[in-house]
Specification:
Organism: Desulforamulus aeronauticus DSM 10349
Helix content: 25-40%
InterPro entries: ArgE/DapE_CS, Bact_exopeptidase_dim_dom, PepT-like, Peptidase_M20, Peptidase_M20_dimer, Peptidase_M42
Distance between the termini: 27 Å
CATH architecture of the largest domain: 3-Layer(aba) Sandwich
CATH topology of the largest domain: Aminopeptidase
Structural class: alpha+beta
Number of helices: 9
Order of helices and strands: HHEEEEEHEHEEEHEEEHEEHEHEEH
Number of strands: 17
Active site: 142 (proton acceptor)
Strand content: 25-35%
Binding site for Zn(2+) 1: 109, 166
GO molecular function: aminopeptidase activity; metal ion binding; metallopeptidase activity
CATH class of the largest domain: Alpha Beta
Shape: elongated
Radius of gyration: 23 Å
CATH superfamily of the largest domain: Zn peptidases
């Protein structure tokens, strides 16, 4: 049985350990000690040394061998990093709810997921519950572009199915669909000139970019697809026709072909504007992650639905417009659902989670492990 008070106390401990993106070292060391104490074999990969990750801390990959169970090897994952302001978190526990003091985030995103996994591991050991083996991955850099999952040492993973605990819905939510995303970065090269003496000799890069953007479909494209231009920078002074401007944006969709069509449309509008006004546009498009697209009869979905029903949670299959480490795992052919944890108002100083959700998260993880014994890969 899950020990509620122990679970809550550990969650309170975790959120008080600073772990903003790029500064996960202290939390990683703490979790290493905890996992080792539970008998898991813990490995820290080299993700922290990759230039594209920019972390000093690697992902933690911990393995608990099967103890006689016949079920599949399962992966459970949550991320260690938090957004800012995440230093000096002082949690307040009151009336069944946990908040921060109000000047920082709380960090339930994603320490609620970590706490649920850790408590489930303890109960497994205490009650000698049979299982077919577990692998636990605690990632770095999730909040800054899923960088830990992208740099993960996948040679260390043998699990082919699993669960990420990193969605905002309540326990029982099973995210089976999430978008693929493309990012766009374009540098428009115009021509500088004195804005007051000879503006006709210049090519205004900001005007070129603005015309390109004006031709784009942005925002909500359809029920599956969105796009955005989020950053623009350029120019030197008001009396100089701006020679260069850089814009950054994205396109995402549950339907991969729609995401590709949308980013291609955005690129084409920029190219046409540059050609029309005599400028040049250097455009870079990067596929940031693959979609989640799990069928209702996919093994992790079947296991999660049955487990939720057994402990009185209402399972529901959902989709999201956001990306998570689960997207990266699915792109690595690990069938992985993203589970709701009940974290609310994340990325704000009003963030909170209820004790009930913390308890249900751990109950759900434990029951998934038990239920998986009835399935084969």
């Amino acid at each position: 049985m899950i020990k509620a008070e122990r679970l809550i106390e550990e969650f309170l401990e975790l959120v008080q350990v600073d772990s903003e993106s790029g500064a996960e070292r202290q939390l990683a060391d703490l979790l290493k000690d905890k996992l080792n104490a539970l008998g898991l074999q813990v490995f820290e990969d080299e993700a922290g040394s990759y230039v594209e990750v920019g972390q000093r801390t690697g992902n933690l990959i911990a393995t608990l061998p099967a103890n006689g169970g016949q079920g599949p090897l399962l992966l459970f994952s949550a991320h260690m990093d938090t957004v800012k302001p995440g230093q000096g978190v002082k949690p307040i526990r009151q009336n069944g709810m946990i908040t921060s003091a109000g000047n920082t985030i709380l960090g339930s995103d994603d320490k609620a997921g970590i706490a649920a996994i850790m408590e489930s591991l303890r109960v497994l050991q205490e009650q000698s519950i049979l299982h077919g083996g577990l692998q636990v991955v605690f990632t770095v850099g999730e909040e800054i572009g899923l960088k830990g999952a992208k740099g993960l040492d996948y040679s260390r993973l043998q699990a082919n199915l699993g669960f990420v605990l990193d969605s905002g819905g309540p326990a029982g939510e099973i995210i089976t669909k999430a978008p693929t995303q493309y990012s766009l970065k374009a540098t428009v090269q115009g021509k500088a000139a004195h804005a007051g003496i000879a503006p006709e000799q210049g090519i205004n890069a900001i005007v070129v970019a603005s015309q390109g953007i004006a031709g784009m479909k942005v925002g909500r494209i359809d029920e599956e697809t969105t796009s955005n231009i989020g950053l623009i920078s350029g120019g030197v002074a008001t009396n100089i026709v701006p020679e260069q401007v850089t814009i950054q944006g994205e396109a995402r969709s549950i339907n991969p072909s729609k995401a590709k069509a949308q980013i291609d449309h955005m690129v084409e509008e920029l190219r046409q504007a540059a050609e029309r006004l005599g400028a040049k546009a250097a455009i870079e498009v990067v596929k940031e992650y693959d979609p989640i697209d799990l069928a209702p009869d996919a093994l992790p979905v079947q296991i999660a639905v049955k487990a939720a029903e057994r402990i009185g949670l209402k399972p529901f299959l959902g989709q999201t417009g956001g990306g998570s480490d689960a997207n990266i795992f699915n792109g690595q052919n690990i069938a992985c659902a993203n589970l709701g944890t009940g974290m609310s108002k994340v990325h704000t100083t009003e963030e909170f989670i209820t004790e009930e959700n913390l308890l249900n998260n751990a109950r759900f993880v434990l029951e998934i492990i038990k239920t998986a014994q009835e399935f084969k890969e």
